[in-house]
Amino acid sequence: MSEIPRIRPYRPVDEDAAVDVWSRAGRAAHPFVPGEGEGERERKMREIYLVHADNWVAEADGRVVALLGLLDAEIAGGAGGEIGGLFVAPEAQGTGVGRLLVEHAAALRGALTLEVYEKNVRARGFYARLGFAEEGRRSDEDNDEILLRLARPAPRA
């Protein structure tokens, strides 16, 4: 990326680019999830998550390089917000774009929660560096993998 990423609201015209980022990033991060980035999971991404979440994209050099989905407070279980998904194109990882999107979410919603696969060590390290701490765990009913629930308090004013 030669250009500093710009965060903007997701638009329906971004669907294919956002799904491409999600698919490539998801396969790289979750090689232990059968069918990650394709098939039924892709259908749900297009028909549910991109339609019902408050989605934001990071755009650089005229293309979408990352996607962040925020869930409504009622869905997330109270105040603050839940990051339903953060996906950064493999070629844009390590550039700070993920951090920009998380800080954008915190500016919009304050305290944040999210779930991350226990086996996704790289993402767990990323979230720990941003101040997230584990507050629970559960088994993912779709694939029997362990999901960790992470939380971060609202930024101080």
Can you give me a brief rundown of this structure?
The chain is α+β, with helices and mostly antiparallel strands and 157 residues long.
Describe this structure in words.
It contains five helices and seven strands. The chain has a single domain (6-152), classed as Aminopeptidase (3-Layer(aba) Sandwich). It has helices at residues 15-29, 39-52, 73-76, 97-109, 121-129, and strands spanning 6-9, 54-60, 63-71, 81-88, 112-117, 133-139, 146-152. The chain is of the alpha+beta class and 157 residues long. It starts with 5 loop residues before the first strand and ends in a 5-residue tail after the last strand. It has a seven-stranded mixed sheet, with helices on both faces. Strand 2 (54-60) and strand 3 form a beta hairpin.
